[in-house]
Amino acid sequence: MEIDKENNTNELTNKPSDATSSKSTGGGDGAYQVPWIEKYRPQLLQDIVGNEETLIRLQAIARDGNLPNLILCGPPGTGKTTSVHALARELLGKSYKDGVLELNASDARGIDVVRNRIKSFAMNKVTLPPGRHKIIILDEADSMTTAAQQALRRTMEIYSNSTRFCLACNVSTKIIEAIQSRAAILRYTRLTHEQILSNLLKVCQSEKVPYTEDGLEAILFTAEGDMRHALNNLQAANSLAQSKPGGMVNQKMVFQVCDQPHPTIVRAIVDACDTGNLEVALAELQKLWNSGYAASDIIGTIFKVCKAHNTLPEGKKLEYLREIGFTHMRISNGVNTLLQLMGLVSRMTQMTMALQEKGKV
Questions:
Q1: Which residue ranges form the domains of the chain, and what is each CATH number?
Q2: Has residue 50 got a pLDDT over 90?
Q3: Where is region (Disordered) located (predicted)?
């Protein structure tokens, strides 16, 4: 989906754009929902939330107009693509649409695309503000083949007078060193709960979303620092709430939409291990497994719940996390059976019993 069409996007404020405000975002007849991740996508660098140090560097580039080749790396949903589009919009102004080429993972980006489409765009003459360059945005650049990256390296050198390249990726090490040495690397980190919550509250106010505090907490829990994930979950939970009389975005709605193991059940498993009650822990684990959740979903939620547990002794929590990490590794390697999860619960309970025998608990 092209995200440079300003009619389909909007600043992450309480002011929706004209195109989107004219379309109903409710569930009325003849209406359709605009994805909130597009409706509230920031258009300016100053509207982007989080990663302040990186944004300060980008704002300095926008102010001076001296744009180097860039590599933006970090987890998904932290604002990499939005940042580079906002930067291009501030640098090029009205020439934004003519001076920007975006290719993402959904496009063919083999060596032929680099040699033909990217090269032809770099060769085209476009009227730009004085001292500005054309910008080629390669989203998810770490999925490009090594041969395509090698061809891109030479293209970056030949057209350095007229064109700048901005590569967004999740892992910078998957970009060949020849390109890394030709670009400035900007790193993004996951957003904090406070940063995501501030935007969720703005969207809730703008869209008149009825919510409860535990509902927003559940969205923050499932988002894991991903703003895109948080907004998608909020919109989906709101749609489900609207389908029920007097519905609100609460914890039950959110976990029903996200379909992740409920933290309360997982907390009961961890608490049972903490008290040495193996039978209760295994029974709760069996219920989760019978509900159809994958081993990777269950182990991920166990990790998050254990990390955020506020009554576990620090030493025991570290031992638990160590065992959870080993089990997560085995599940990631393909051994995703119930036996692995039961083995984890048994080892966690065994740790508690061993500490009780030594008189440390």
A1: 51-187 (3.40.50.300), 263-358 (1.20.272.10)
A2: no
A3: 1-28
